[in-house]
Structure to design on (1097 residues):
């Protein structure tokens, strides 16, 4: 698997400040990071470290106070709202911790939603592949209220995968699931990266979840403080402990 | 805990505002009805008391003949001179002033037309011959009339016509137009131009007697003042004893009440109508409030569960929701009351400005019972609307609510079955009335309609999904449209409830529309079928009840070349065979050609004096057959004996007894009101019309028209009534639209996370707004559709039940389509605010919303 030279997502000296003057909160302080194509990267850190903020800024869901953000070749910072909307529609996929799905649509309709919004049809072969990968074949006609939490998250993953975005951002995708469902979801995500070259950036606080990634980036107090390639759950835990000691 | 909940309530100000607005509007209408009506009523009472402040007792003639149905003040019963003079000798009388006054003095303006009247009388009065007599009017300028060809006119008449002292004017009275010279301008007491818009032409007393009462030596009334120490009641007793039977004696107060009578009746109708529309507005608000509280309760389920989990019991939760509703109702009703008082004052002012005579008094009449009723109605309705959601709130099990479990759709079975039962019952009642099995109209028609409506409302949830899906097929080919359709079907109860509010107004408007168009069709068909006249001679609409033309014109009409048949019609209220009835003098033979009159028994021909032709119905009611005799008493002619020579079949155009021209001599007015002409050949209509124009050229109150013109007048009057009804119904529709906005706002709020998610996966702001718009239009259209179907059904039922030839069932398709299109437009407008809210959501905040 070759990685092209342009990263799937890039942050360049990103600052994010909330509030003003003395009450100002510096969520991100000059963060620069590249996220390679075809790789599964995890962003980890204690609560308040700014990991979710970083993801939101990368995905164009939030504005940066200074610095630049790129998705592939597209410069995200400075895009208008309709530009950001298009970006989210065509180039970015999302998996949130919960409430990913529209209750009035069936699983199948939810999966095809972003494509429908973009006015595109799914590639039939790819669609079948995705459905098989997440193992949802028999539940396609069901509404979210008729699916378990794990199944709902798998539908969310399928939705993110089907449109083949440049990068999928996942915010604590297994946070609300039991360990078995969670492991299933993480496996699907990793499969999509290994077998189909999808780029995934996942925010998590769970070392076990982080161990599924190819690389873990550690954030503390709004700055990148550490990195770990080919992580194991224990390795991640160790690094986290070291971070705590430094606090 | 109540404080905490109140704070929670205040946090959602906009929604509260919308709910409050509904109550405010409804109570404002209701209280305006009463305040306006009461204030105007008191104003008129005060005014009439003021008129009569210079007299204590009034004596007028008494008549056995019924008055004209429009309550005009043409005086026919008189007080002879001898009796009038004798009154000054009655015990306790300080002064007796005989007066001459009657409606029907029409001044010809500079354009040759009679000055019109749209209500108040055009009085012709006499200036008292006795120098000590108290005149009815006050000289403002110039001199009172001293010679038979002199008159004084009232200021408002002078203003309208531009006549001044010295002008030569013509006046029509019981006699055709006569020339006069204006010697003075008059007004009434307190420096007013008139009491209620009436005009005055003042003649010398003998001339007034002649022109207004028909002969000299009589008076219309005698005004008496009492000696000091004698009360009006005492004086009345004395006078009655002195006079015996034949005259009517009333105190000044009783006179004021009698004079105000027709106005009070009108005001009562006006008050009742406004009040009913106010109540309708409130009831529509009931739906809105129910919806609001349901949604507020649902949203605060977790909050309420929290209260329950740390010890608040069911009762407390129920009570606090009720308290919220009571407060909301009370505050809104008070605001509504305030606005209503203002509106009532405005009504009084508008009436004064429109008629040119402001009513006395500057205050308003606000009866305590009106305050209580308004506040009670508004608060009670709010409470009732909030009751069911409040009970549901108190039943929330704490843990269940905390868990944010997906709420399964509540089954609609029970609701639907109840709805079907009510609907069936309602239709059954209507059918019973239609087949005349049951006769009580209020029970069957009113009850049946109500039950049908309630049944439909209960069925609405079951219908909402299939119907909105059906309509939604037009837009569900794109994602926003599809989502909009799905969202509308999400909560059938809520959709149905919101739509039901709209249904009320639309049902009523549609039903009225069906009825009105059926009347128009019926009348039109009647005109086309039964009326065989080509030309009509009639008094102009604004010319008033005393207008007309010389009945002798009938002879000239018949002799006009080209005319096949003609008759003049002169009618009046009389007493015949012991019943109050309207009698018409006309050529019964011509009537067969002109009005399709058919004989049922005896002869139907031109009548001689002393003969009468009855309608079948009248003959049945009085038991009179051909050859029988009866008596007729007319306003000015005393009693006449009549023999029945014929009976006619039921006919919608000629529905009253027919007498000869000679027997009509005793009618109130010497003039005929209408004439109909049939032309031998259609090609001659134009020339005949020209000749008729010449015949009435001198008469400023009459013109030649075609039946088509008459028809147009009648239908445009109907259209005006319908317009007014629709305007009043506008209030209920407005409240219903507020309900739609409210529902959408709340639903947008509930779906904050969903909407955030939609934006996150790439739906643009515009498309989100479009989605909300689709939902709004679907709800509005659903409500309007149900209203149109129901209204048409009820309208058909009404027309079928009432029957009669004036009604021919016609469904106003154009009107129905317009209503549906209007519903779409309303839906789009109602969506503006919620759609803007939804589109403006900050994506990140929305997703993260807890």
């Amino acid at each position: 698997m070759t990685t092209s030279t342009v990263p799937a997502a890039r942050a360049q000296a990103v600052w994010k400040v909330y509030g003003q003057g003395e009450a100002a909160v510096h969520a991100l302080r000059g963060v620069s990071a590249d996220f390679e194509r075809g790789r599964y990267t995890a962003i980890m850190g204690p609560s308040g470290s700014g990991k979710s903020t970083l993801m939101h800024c990368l995905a164009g869901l939030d504005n940066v106070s200074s610095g630049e953000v790129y998705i592939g070749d597209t410069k995200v910072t400075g895009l208008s709202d309709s530009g950001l909307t298009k970006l989210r529609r065509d180039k970015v996929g999302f998996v949130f911790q919960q409430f990913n799905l529209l209750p009035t649509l069936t699983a199948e309709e939810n999966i095809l939603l972003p494509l429908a919004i973009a006015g595109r049809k799914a590639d039939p072969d790819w669609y079948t592949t995705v459905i098989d990968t997440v193992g949802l074949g028999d539940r396609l006609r069901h509404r979210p209220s008729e699916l378990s939490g794990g199944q709902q998250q798998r539908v969310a993953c399928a939705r993110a995968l089907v449109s083949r975005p440049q990068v999928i951002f996942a915010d604590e995708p297994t946070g609300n699931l039991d360990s078995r469902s969670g492991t299933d979801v993480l496996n699907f995500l990793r499969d999509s990266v290994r077998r189909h070259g999808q780029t995934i950036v996942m925010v998590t606080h769970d070392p076990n979840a982080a161990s599924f990634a190819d690389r873990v980036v550690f954030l503390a107090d709004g700055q990148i403080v550490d990195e770990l390639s080919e992580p194991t759950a224990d390795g991640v835990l160790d690094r986290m402990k070291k971070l705590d000691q430094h606090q | 805990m109540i404080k905490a909940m109140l704070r929670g309530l205040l946090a959602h100000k906009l929604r509260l505002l919308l709910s409050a607005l509904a109550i405010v509007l409804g109570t404002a209408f209701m209280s305006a009805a009463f305040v306006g009506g009461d204030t105007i009523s008191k104003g008129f009472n005060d005014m009439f008391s003021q008129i009569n402040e210079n007299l204590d007792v009034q004596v007028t003639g008494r008549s056995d003949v019924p008055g004209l149905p429009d309550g005009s003040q043409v005086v026919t019963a008189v007080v002879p001179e001898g009796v009038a003079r004798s009154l000054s000798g009655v015990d306790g009388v300080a002064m007796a002033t005989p007066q001459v006054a009657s409606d029907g003095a029409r001044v010809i303006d500079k354009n040759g037309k009679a000055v019109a009247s749209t209500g108040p009388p055009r009085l012709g009065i006499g200036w008292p011959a006795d120098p000590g007599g108290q005149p009815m009017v006050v000289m403002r300028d110039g001199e009172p009339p001293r010679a038979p060809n002199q008159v004084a006119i009232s200021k408002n008449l002078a203003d309208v016509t531009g006549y001044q002292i010295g002008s030569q004017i013509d006046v029509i009275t019981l006699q055709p137009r006569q020339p006069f010279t204006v010697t003075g301008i008059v007004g009434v007491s307190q420096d007013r131009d008139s009491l209620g818009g009436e005009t005055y032409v003042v003649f010398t007393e003998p001339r007034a007697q002649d022109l207004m009462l028909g002969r000299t030596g009589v008076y219309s009334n005698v005004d008496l003042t009492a000696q000091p120490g004698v009360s009006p009641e005492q004086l009345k007793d004395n006078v009655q004893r002195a006079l015996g039977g034949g005259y009517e004696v009333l105190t000044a107060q009783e006179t004021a009440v009698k004079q105000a009578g027709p106005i009070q009746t009108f005001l009562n109708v006006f008050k009742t109508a406004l009040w009913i529309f106010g109540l309708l507005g409130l009831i529509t608000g009931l739906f809105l409030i129910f919806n609001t509280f349901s949604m507020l309760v649902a949203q605060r389920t977790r909050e309420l569960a929290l209260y329950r989990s740390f010890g608040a019991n069911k009762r407390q939760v129920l009570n606090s929701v009720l308290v919220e509703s009571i407060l909301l109702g009370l505050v809104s009703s008070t605001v509504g009351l305030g606005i209503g008082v203002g509106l009532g004052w405005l009504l009084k002012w508008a009436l004064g400005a429109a008629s040119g005579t402001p009513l006395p008094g500057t205050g308003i009449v606000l009866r305590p019972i009106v305050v209580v009723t308004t506040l009670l109605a508004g608060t009670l309705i709010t409470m009732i609307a909030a009751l069911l959601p409040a009970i549901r709130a108190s039943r929330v099990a704490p843990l269940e609510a905390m868990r944010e479990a997906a709420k399964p759709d509540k089954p609609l079975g029970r609701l639907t079955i109840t709805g079907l039962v009510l609907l069936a019952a309602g239709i059954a009642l209507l059918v019973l009335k239609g087949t005349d099995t049951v006769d009580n109209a209020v029970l069957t028609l009113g009850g049946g309609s109500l039950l049908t409506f309630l049944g439909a409302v209960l069925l609405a949830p079951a219908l909402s999904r299939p119907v909105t899906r059906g309509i939604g097929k037009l837009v569900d080919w794109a994602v926003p449209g599809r989502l909009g359709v799905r969202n509308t079907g999400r909560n059938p109860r809520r959709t149905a409830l919101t739509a039901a509010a709209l249904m009320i107004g639309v049902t009523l408007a549609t039903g009225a529309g069906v009825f009105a168009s059926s009347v128009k069709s019926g009348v039109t068909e009647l005109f086309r079928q039964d009326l065989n006249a080509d030309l009509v001679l009639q008094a102009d609409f604004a010319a008033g009840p005393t207008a007309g033309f010389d009945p002798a014109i009938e002879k000239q009409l018949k002799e006009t070349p080209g005319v096949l048949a003609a008759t003049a019609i002169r009618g009046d209220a009389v007493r015949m065979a012991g019943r109050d009835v309207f009698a018409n003098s006309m050529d019964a033979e011509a009537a067969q050609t002109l009005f399709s009159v058919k004989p049922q028994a005896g002869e139907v021909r031109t009548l001689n004096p002393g003969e009468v032709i009855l309608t079948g119905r009248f003959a049945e009611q009085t038991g009179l057959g051909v050859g029988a005799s009866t008596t007729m008493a007319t306003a000015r002619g005393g009693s006449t004996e009549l023999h029945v020579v014929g009976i006619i079949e039921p006919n919608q155009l000629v529905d009253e007894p027919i007498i000869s021209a000679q027997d009509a001599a005793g009618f109130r007015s010497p003039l005929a009101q209408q004439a109909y002409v049939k032309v031998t050949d259609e090609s001659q209509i134009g020339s005949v019309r020209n000749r008729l124009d010449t015949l009435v050229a001198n008469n400023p109150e009459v013109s030649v028209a075609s039946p088509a013109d008459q028809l147009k007048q009648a239908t445009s009057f109907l259209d005006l009534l319908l317009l007014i009804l629709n305007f009043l119904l506008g209030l209920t529709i407005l409240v219903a639209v507020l309900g739609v906005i409210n529902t959408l706002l709340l639903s947008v709020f509930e779906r904050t996370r969903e909407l955030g998610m939609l934006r996150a996966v790439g739906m643009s702001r515009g498309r989100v707004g479009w989605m909300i718009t689709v939902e709004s239009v679907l709800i509005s259209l659903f409500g309007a559709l149900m209203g149109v179907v129901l209204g048409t059904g009820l309208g058909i039922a009404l027309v079928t039940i009432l029957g009669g030839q004036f009604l021919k069932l016609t469904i106003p398709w154009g009107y129905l389509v317009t209503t549906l299109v209007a519903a779409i437009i309303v839906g789009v407008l109602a969506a503006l605010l919620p759609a803007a809210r939804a589109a403006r959501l900050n994506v990140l905040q929305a997703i993260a919303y807890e």
User: Anything to note?
Assistant: Chain B touches chain A through 23 residues (CB under 8 Å). Residues 303 and 459 of chain B are 32 Å apart (CA to CA).
